[in-house]
Amino acid sequence: MSTPTSKIHLRTPPEPGRKAAAKTYIIYFLTGNPGLIEYYRVFLTHLYGVLTQDTASDRSVEFQVYGRSLSGFEMSGAETKTHKYRKPPPYGLQDQIRHAEDDVVEVVEAVRDAGGKDVRVILMGHSVGAYMSLEIVRRLRAHGLAGEDFETRIAGVVGLFPTVVDIARSESGVKAAPFLKNPSFALVVSLVAGFITMLMPLALLARLVSFVTGFPADAACTTASFVKSPYGVQQAVHMARDEMFQIDTDIWDEDVWGAAAEAPASKHPHPRPVLRFLFAKKDHWVADETRDALIRTRGRFSRWDVQEVEGMEESWKPAMEVDETEGWPHGFCIKHGVPVAERVAGYVRRIVAQDASRK
After folding, report:
1. Distances in Å between the alpha carbon of 260 and those of 163, 265, 315?
2. CA 281, CA 322: separation in Å to the nearest integer?
3. pLDDT of the residue at 254
């Protein structure tokens, strides 16, 4: 049984004599919690395949899909030690955002160094990853306004089953909050998990996970590896505690959410990113009233990737879709990666089309 990887980077290898694409869009994926990128391999691979099936011979646009496990979720101590961060795990939510922001900048630089011409980023986040995506946009635009970073251009953000406000009001948030209030809870849970699984072979633990949860083999293996990893369980609970008490009110202004035509234009050299969100009909981590209030105050209802159902007169607002037909769960990556990828590919195409009309 192979150990899950901590990084996925899908791209077409350079070929001698092949013309470089006019624009390169990096889809930078931010995971939910637990922050293991391996959970999303089927989703990301299918998304890459759908997006690139029409661009093999078209050199106007090239797509790359990149994602990594969040800090502290590495599968081995050797990987953890390679971090440049000044403290060991567990890392809090603000640490994760800083690490991801740095990584986005480094990935863009690496793609440019490899020959990429006009390199732009579409941040894509699941659950808390959507919160992190909006925070990265806010921070990068603040750096740009301060003259510190004009190079990293965020063309769009896709939030999948996003937990961006009032997570403590969700069904699971209400249940988890009393336990997470105890600052020692993360360490206690990790010690108990480590004691129970210490002598259990990975393959046996994976079969047990599959039996108990109904996970397919790949997700069960990833979960088993996560439980036996050096910091994974403690990192997940430690980060969940931060999520519970930091993801509450809407903290972003119009420079992140967008602004009406009559509002003052942004002073940032890059246009505001195009935002799209996909919500579940029922989500145990997002209360119905929280979702509906966010759509009402910040977004506009959409359906699929073509027809805007409401809010056409406010086309500057983020398009927010509620899955009314498929029944996709919050943890879509376990069993529903392929159909969600096909829906999200439409979002990406719309973002690219809208971005192409801007300088």
Report:
1. 25, 9, 9
2. 6
3. 83
Judged against a pLDDT cut of 80, whether residue 150 lies above it is answered with no
Q: Mind listing the pLDDT tens digit for each residue in 68-98?
A: 999 999 887 667 655 567 788 999 999 999 9
For residues 325 and 221, what is the distance between their CA atoms, to the nearest angstrom? 30
Please provide the DSSP assignment of 150-161 as one string. -S-EEEEEEEES
Evaluate whether 43 touches 80 at the Cβ level (below 8 Å).
no
CA atoms 341, 347, 350, 356: torsion sign: negative
Provide the 10 A C-beta neighbour count for residue 179: 15
The average pLDDT across 213-240 equals 94
C-beta contacts of 204-210 below 8 A and 24+ residues apart? 206/1
Q: Are strands 61-68 and 7-10 parallel, antiparallel or unpaired?
A: antiparallel
Whether the bond into 14 is cis, omega within 30 of 0: no
- Strand locations in the chain, DSSP E? 7-10, 23-30, 61-68, 118-126, 153-160, 274-279, 300-302, 319-322
The span from the CA of 133 to the CA of 28, in Å, is 9
Give me the pLDDT at residue 44, please.
98
**Quick one: which H or E segment has residue 105?**
helix 93-113
Q: Which CATH class is domain 7-165+249-356?
A: alpha beta
Q: How far apart are CA 256 and CA 157, in angstroms?
A: 10
Number of helices and strands in the chain (H, E): 12, 8
pLDDT at 174: 95
Residue 254: φ, ψ to 5°: -65, -20
Distance, CA of 313 to CA of 294 (rounded, Å): 18
Q: What is the pLDDT of residues 257-282, one digit of tens each?
A: 875 444 556 777 788 899 999 999 99
> Mean pLDDT throughout 183-195?
87
Whole-number Å distance between alpha carbons of 266 and 141? 10
First to last CA, the chain: 48
